[in-house]
Design a protein that fits this description.
Layout: E1 7-12, E2 15-20, E3 23-27, H1 40-63, E4 69-79, E5 84-95, H2 100-112, H3 115-123, E6 125-132
Parallel strand pairs: 5-6
Antiparallel strand pairs: 1-2, 2-3, 4-5
Length: 137
């Protein structure tokens, strides 16, 4: 079983920071918001994206999958009362010459073996697509 440790602290009324290993992440905890840091909802979306990216990095060698790049876009919907995320939609764009069947296989593996995406999918509607990057960009 793997275990993780993160600590967080309030820096001031405009922000906080989280630490894990040797990394420090500035967190937007300002009531007015701040453009130079992720707020908690954005951190959740980024965590899902990171999970998917890491999953692709993990399974690509096992599948002998050739890829040049990956972009992921996520969109979360939040309700106000009680405050909670209702859904996350994603689009994974893979720069690859692999067949459509192999792209589908990659997507199935990413969804099946993602720690964060599986956890989030149990709590809300997580849906999306994986497609090939268009030739013009």
């Amino acid at each position: 079983m793997l275990e993780y440790k993160v600590t967080a602290r309030r820096v001031d009324a405009h922000g906080s920071e989280a630490r894990a290993k040797d990394a420090v992440l500035v967190i937007d905890t300002d009531l007015q918001g701040r453009p130079d840091a992720f707020n908690p909802a954005e951190l959740l979306l980024a965590s899902v994206a990171a999970c998917m990216l890491k999953g692709i990095e993990r399974v690509a060698p096992m599948l002998d999958f050739d890829l040049r790049g990956i972009d992921i876009s996520l969109h979360g919907k939040r309700q106000d009362s009680p405050p909670k995320m209702l859904s996350i939609a994603y689009e994974i764009i893979v720069d690859s010459d692999e067949t459509d069947h192999r792209l589908d296989l990659l997507h199935k593996n990413v969804r099946k073996f993602g720690t964060i995406s599986n956890t989030v999918a149990d709590a809300l509607d997580l849906s999306g697509t994986l497609r090939r990057k268009s030739p013009q960009g």
